[in-house]
Design a protein that fits this description.
Layout: H1 3-16, H2 18-47, H3 52-60, H4 64-92, H5 98-115, H6 122-130, H7 137-165, H8 178-202, E1 205-208, E2 211-214, H9 218-242, H10 250-267, H11 275-283, H12 290-323, H13 331-359, H14 369-376, H15 385-404, H16 408-427, H17 432-445, H18 465-486, H19 504-528, E3 534-536, H20 540-553, E4 567-571, E5 574-581, E6 584-588, E7 592-593, H21 595-611, E8 615-622, H22 626-631, E9 635-646, H23 658-669, E10 672-677, H24 683-699, H25 714-717, E11 721-727, E12 730-737, E13 739-740, E14 745-747, E15 751-753, H26 761-775, E16 780-787, H27 799-807, E17 809-810, E18 813-814, H28 817-825, E19 830-838, H29 845-856
Helix pairs in contact: 1-27, 1-29, 2-11, 3-12, 4-5, 4-7, 4-9, 4-12, 5-6, 5-12, 5-13, 6-7, 6-13, 7-8, 7-9, 7-10, 9-10, 9-12, 10-11, 12-13, 13-15, 15-16, 15-19, 16-17, 18-19, 23-26, 27-29
Length: 865
């Protein structure tokens, strides 16, 4: 198979079914939006008769004993949720300290259940904590998958079991006869129980399409079902306590709760908001007052979801303060998890408040909207009624975007708004409860300054002409908005963006107000967006700047950023190399530089790629980058492992080195020798190496590759050390060796030899080279990466096989990956995982196709984006 054929095969799926692939890529988002809209519509219809004042009165009348009982049941439920992690760790054969399991599980469920976004999912939280204690991404994925599958099976069995006992529980939702429901439930329950029994007895693994799962034992299944039963029963008990008397019996409510929860989970709507409530309200008897049912659901959300969320956030805030004075192995991973969660949690709070305020004017009786908002929202309202509320809501929506992007200036603006709310609540409304709530939120968020580490554009280029112009334009837009609001050009009970009604003069005034607000919001968003990093073409000046950063902070393999075929992005003492191909911006590895700048540079790269309409991709990213990748909302696709030899422990002594020692000594007797030279190099040597390189390429009927490997380019060769193998006065093989002296690290890049070189020349060269580097005081040597490859189902090459074949293809054949791994295993390396990081949940066909063309094709057009 030729390289062109393999490349066409790799991209074939995209070319054959582009519409289907586009739909598959965006289907989860589209389905989620549709379900969210459907749930919101159903909930709106159900709540149409509701009065906010009556709801608040019912809320305040809830007995304290009910609140206390609900909190106690919540504690038991979350203890069962933590048991999921304990049993999952037991299943995969891992052991962690119980306090760590408790904190990791509690944080994962407290944040994941409440927010429900992939960027802050329970798996991301657990990875932050568990990875510091020896678990890798696959272990954490196994924990999350085991818990999710177990919960789905357990919830289904509990729900259908309760439905078999009380089939009339769904009388308000479905028209199916109770007797039929009982028979169906018993059939499903029996099938599930029989399936679990057979699976546990069979053991081994189960394949579900491309997913291979280890089968748990009967004890593991029983433990997980027990934890699931306790958690579901406790959650349903919390809801039962808070719902009004005269509602559903507990057994019936257990059925409704299980169905409503599964509907919320399947909808992928954050927290199942709208979907869960619609199912529960629809199942309530007609005799139950609507405001009482809604009050119970609201309290359920507050106690079972928001209370643990608040406890977790407050606990992280306290630990953030503590870590500045006392660090422990337990506190540090909790801090990294907290910094991951706080921007999204804060942004969600600001976004929700802003959206509610923007669209509150759509509620009935707009003249009462301001009073209802004042009662419901934890924000002190200013004068202007619904008009000012909708403008302030739009500002909060824009502000939330910058909060999600971790803008430092947006963070301080939120704290300023909270502080202003405290003052207004005390001075204007004398609302002590609200002042305490806002002050508490202020105190909780205050320690997380380091979580918001990106500088907004408004803070860059201070006193420059551009900065002054942006500030002046924002001030002018705000002044125009304030003037038009207070000149009564629009009714105070109408939102600023509803300018189509009323007399022509009034409509014109509203249109002008909408234009002023839109202009101000656009400028506000531009000012709070994180600042851009410098992107430079790889000229001599940029390469020297990058070389300086890598020499200070990088390893030998990081020097591949200096090959000259990649763009360079700089910022905050860090550098990143990337190239654009097809629809992707592909970064090689991860940013290198100061710790504080690496993460900000990764965010800036993703922002720049998306602004250009491209997908950001990190190719061969190291394990140390996975935490940042999760912050960026990316998926980790393990694509191979890098072989790194510890030179301090490397030697030819001992029984395990007998074969390597024999080959090395035979090569010495045959007249082979190694020479190692640092730059600058003699032009005559470069010319001789060019001859060897051309001979090697001709013998393999191949061409130079690029991007992730070096090429025989004089400028790149001049930056590397060179190892040459001599036989009788002539050079028969060579390798280019990027060396990071400060880190004590080196890596191999080009490895080429004459077609008539003696056998075992390359093995001798590697052995002699590592001995020489060890004598020079270096600590580690990278032999490069071995990609994963193999045969997929039905004997067809899988995605990674096709990609590896294309990248490693030479003369119609490719280096066997198993053979490559066996060769490198001779030197007893440490195998370190490397990942492809992108936003795709599906197999990353498009990013890999772009990377393959980038590596195996010509470098021409790399910068044409």
């Amino acid at each position: 198979m030729t390289a062109k054929a393999v490349e066409q095969d790799l991209q074939g799926g995209q070319q054959r079914l582009p519409a289907l692939l586009v739909f598959r890529r965006h289907a989860p988002i589209l389905v989620t939006l549709l379900l969210f809209v459907a749930g919101a519509y159903a909930l709106n219809r159900l709540l149409a008769p509701l009065n906010a004042a009556d709801l608040l009165a019912t809320l305040r009348a809830t007995p304290g004993t009910s609140i206390a009982g609900a909190i106690a049941a919540t504690g038991v439920g979350y203890a069962a949720l933590v048991g999921y992690d304990w049993s999952a760790l037991r299943f995969i054969g891992k052991t962690l300290p119980l306090p760590t399991v408790f904190l990791g599980g509690f944080l994962g469920y407290a944040f994941g259940n409440t927010i429900g976004l992939s960027a802050v999912s329970g798996g991301a939280v657990r990875y932050r904590i568990y990875s510091t204690l020896g678990l890798d991404a696959h272990d954490v994925a196994a924990i999350a998958s085991f818990a999710a599958i177990s919960y789905g099976v357990g919830a289904t069995m509990i729900g259908v079991g309760a439905l078999a006992i009380h089939p009339a529980a769904l009388a308000g939702i479905t028209a199916i006869a109770p007797g039929t429901l009982r028979l169906l439930s018993l059939a499903v329950l029996a099938a599930a129980a029989l399936g679990l029994f057979l699976i546990a007895r069979r053991g081994g693994t189960v394949r579900i399409r491309h997913l291979v799962l280890n089968v748990p034992s009967g004890v593991d299944i029983a433990l997980q079902l027990a934890f699931t039963f306790v958690e579901i029963v406790m959650a349903a008990l919390v809801l039962h306590i808070l719902l009004p008397s005269g509602g559903l019996p507990f057994a019936n409510l257990l059925v409704v709760y299980a169905i409503a929860t599964m509907a919320g989970v399947l909808s992928h709507v954050p927290g199942g908001i709208g979907v869960f409530e619609s199912v529960v309200i629809a199942a309530m008897p007609a005799a139950v007052p609507l405001d009482a049912a809604v009050t119970g659901l609201l309290l359920f959300r507050l106690i079972y979801f928001l209370l643990p969320f608040a406890v977790a956030l407050a606990g992280l805030s306290a630990l953030e303060v503590r870590v500045r004075f006392f660090r422990t192995a337990l506190v540090t991973p909790l801090m990294t998890a907290g910094r991951l969660l706080v921007p999204t949690a804060t942004g969600g709070l600001v976004l929700g408040s802003g959206l509610f305020m923007m669209f509150a004017s759509l509620l009935p009786n707009p003249q009462n909207t301001a009073d209802e908002l004042e009662a419901l929202l934890p924000l002190a309202m200013v004068e202007g009624g619904a008009l000012t509320s909708s403008i302030l809501g739009a500002v909060l929506v824009v502000l939330s975007i910058s909060i999600f992007r971790r803008s430092r200036q947006a963070y301080w603006l939120v704290l300023g708004l909270l502080g202003a709310g405290v003052v207004m609540a005390i001075v204007k409304t004398q609302d002590v409860d609200r002042a305490i709530l806002l002050a508490t939120l202020f105190v909780v968020l205050l320690p997380f300054q380091t979580a918001f580490d990106r500088t907004a554009r408004i803070a860059q280029g201070l006193w420059s002409v551009r900065w002054a112009g942006l500030l002046t334009a924002i001030a002018a837009a705000l002044a125009l908005t304030w003037l038009m609001v207070h000149e009564n050009v629009a009714q105070s009970n109408t939102a600023w963006w509803r300018f189509g009604d009323g007399a022509p003069a009034l409509a014109a005034g509203r249109a002008g107000l909408a234009a002023a607000v839109t202009l101000g919001l656009g400028l506000f968003l531009a000012a709070l967006r994180p600042g851009r990093m410098r992107t430079l073409f790889p000229d001599a000046r940029a390469l020297e700047e990058a070389a300086s950063i890598i020499a200070e902070h990088g390893h030998g393999g990081d020097l591949l950023a200096l090959t000259g075929d990649k763009m360079l992005m700089f910022g905050d003492g860090a550098v990143l190399s990337y190239a654009a191909k097809g629809g992707s911006w592909i970064a090689l590895g991860a940013p290198v530089g100061e710790a504080s700048g690496r993460e900000r540079l990764a965010w800036a790269f993703c922002d720049a790629a998306r602004s250009a309409g491209a997908r950001p991709v990190f190719y061969e990213a190291p394990a140390a980058f996975t935490e940042t990748a999760l912050d960026l909302g990316m998926m980790l696709h393990k694509m191979g492992e890098e072989a790194v030899v510890d030179l301090r422990a490397f030697s030819l002594e001992g029984p395990s080195r007998k074969r390597l020692r024999t080959t090395y000594n035979r090569a010495l007797r045959d007249g082979l020798s190694l020479d190692f030279s640092a730059p600058p190099h003699d032009p005559g040597l470069i010319a001789e190496l060019r001859e060897i390189s051309d001979d090697w390429l001709s013998g393999h009927r191949s061409r130079e590759k690029g991007f992730s490997v070096g090429r025989f380019d004089p400028d790149w060769i001049a930056r590397c050390a060179i190892a040459t193998v001599h036989e009788g006065g002539r050079v028969v093989a060579f390798a280019t060796v990027p060396v990071a002296t400060r880190a004590g690290s080196a890596a191999v890049d080009l490895m080429r030899h004459r077609q008539n070189a003696p056998p075992n020349t390359m093995e001798f060269m590697f052995t002699a080279l590592m001995l020489r580097l060890k004598d020079d005081g270096l600590r580690e040597f990278s032999l490069g990466m071995v990609p994963f490859a193999g045969l997929g189902t039905n004997g067809k090459p899988d995605l990674w096989s096709r990609f590896g074949t294309l990248v490693y293809l030479h003369g119609g054949r490719f280096y066997g990956f198993e053979g490559l791994r066996q060769f490198k295993n001779k030197f007893d390396p440490d195998w370190r995982p490397r990942y492809l990081c992108c936003r795709s949940l599906l197999p990353p066909v498009a990013p890999l196709a772009d990377a393959a063309r980038l590596i195996s094709g010509s470098t021409r057009g790399i910068f044409a984006k």
